[in-house]
Amino acid sequence: MINCEESSCENFQVAICLHCMCRLCIYHIEDHQKVLLNKIDELKNQVNQVNIILMNASNVMVEERKADAKKCFDWRKQKIVEIERKYNEMRNSIENRQKTLENLELELNQRLKIEIQQPLEDMCIQKSINVHLLDSIQLAIETIKKDSEFLIWNSQQ
Fold first, then answer.
1. Does 97 map to a domain?
2. Domains in the chain, number
3. What is the domain range of residue 80?
């Protein structure tokens, strides 16, 4: 018979540990099993600690992602407000420029009719030529031509 492999034990071996192939007596196999069970418990505790670390890291990542997503959403919202404001300013500027040009065009057409066309028609109907009126009409034509130079669309305004 072979003795227990535990140091200073002279009992006969009764079992072989399949984990380490150690031959032990009945007393030492029980102690050996307790050591292995303690090691298993220690490993379980380590697994639980690692699991907690991973869960905490995951929770932190989720919170940081949510914070970044909120920042992104808030930034987008702010930019949309800025774009809408600028768009409205530009649209109002375009509409105001259009109204100004329409009013100028209307005024020039009225002046053309009143200061030039009507007096010319009157002279043709009456078959009477007034030199001062012709000079006045010529001056009105030049003024309206000059003023019509402002009838351009200027995107910069």
1. yes
2. 1
3. 15-148
For residue 4, tell me if it sits in a domain: no
- Confidence band, pLDDT 50/70/90 cuts, at residue 85: very high
CA distances from 111 to 14, 104, 106, 117, 139 (A): 127, 10, 9, 9, 12
Task: Please name the helix (run of DSSP H) or strand (run of DSSP E) that holds residue 110, with its range, or none.
Answer: helix 26-111
Q: Is residue 75 part of a domain?
A: yes
| pTM, two decimal places | 0.58
3-state secondary structure of 36: helix
Q: Give 114-121's long-range contacts (Cβ < 8 A, gap of 24+).
A: 115/140, 115/144, 116/140, 116/141, 116/144
| pLDDT level of residue 154 (50, 70, 90 thresholds) | confident
Q: Is 8 contained in some domain? A: no
Q: How many CA atoms lie within 13 A of 138 on its CB side?
A: 6
Q: Which two tokens stand for residue 74?
A: 């808030």
Residue 156: is its pLDDT beyond 70? no
pLDDT at 157 over 70: no
Beta strands in the chain (DSSP E): 15-16, 23-24
Q: Are 141 and 108 in contact (CB under 8 A)?
A: no
